[in-house]
Amino acid sequence: MTPRAKRALALGIGVAAAAGGALAAWHYHRVGLTLTHYDARGHLVVARRIADSITPGWQQIGAVWLPLPHLLNALAVQVDVFYRTGASAVAMSVVSYAIAAAAIAWIVAALTESSAAAVAAAAVFALNPNVLYLQATPMTEPLLLATTTVAVALLIAKKGSYPFFVGAAFALACLTRYEAWPVTACALGAAAWVRWRRGEPPSAAVRAIARVAVFPAIAIAVFLVVSRVVVGEWFVASGFFVPENKAAGDAWVAAKEIGWGVQRLSGPLLVWIGGIGVAIAAALGVATKRRADALVVVSLAAMGAIAWAAFYRGHPFRIRYMVPLVAIEAIGAGFAAGLMPRRRAQTAAAIALASVAAYELSPLDAHAPMVVEAQWDRPNLAERARVTGCIGRLEPGAKIMASMGSLGHYMQEASAAGFAIRDFLHEGNGDIWLAALERPQLVADWLLIEEKAEGGDMLAHIARERPAFLDGYQRVCEGAGLALYRRVEGKPEDTEYTDGR
Question: Do 189 and 318 reside in the same domain of the chain?
Answer without folding.
Answer: yes
